[in-house]
User: Which sequence fits this backbone?
């Protein structure tokens, strides 16, 4: 499961630079990262796919994480809640797209 990968990286967010080099498309999929971008960013979609650290932070934000302690580490609960909200958004998008057919 892609979310488990993000939860695993949560433990090592300060030590590992691989989050910055790995594409979030591997964990989220094309539609999901684009919907997450449109939900949380106030800009148009980027030409390049964001990295895993972007996905980590924004899934956590979607789950209610505010980084009030300035640690950069989201709780597993915030990641799960963000993941489930993203899945709900994705399901709604796919249902809306199926109305056209």
Assistant:
């Amino acid at each position: 499961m892609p979310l488990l990968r993000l939860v695993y990286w949560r433990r090592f967010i300060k030590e590992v630079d691989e989050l910055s080099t790995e594409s979030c498309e591997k964990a989220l999929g094309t539609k999901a990262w684009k919907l997450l971008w449109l939900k949380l960013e106030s800009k148009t979609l980027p030409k390049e796919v964001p990295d895993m650290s972007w996905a980590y932070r924004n899934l956590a934000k979607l789950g209610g994480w505010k980084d009030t302690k300035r640690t950069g580490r989201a709780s597993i609960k915030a990641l799960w809640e963000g993941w489930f909200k993203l899945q709900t958004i994705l399901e709604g998008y796919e249902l809306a797209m199926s109305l056209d057919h």
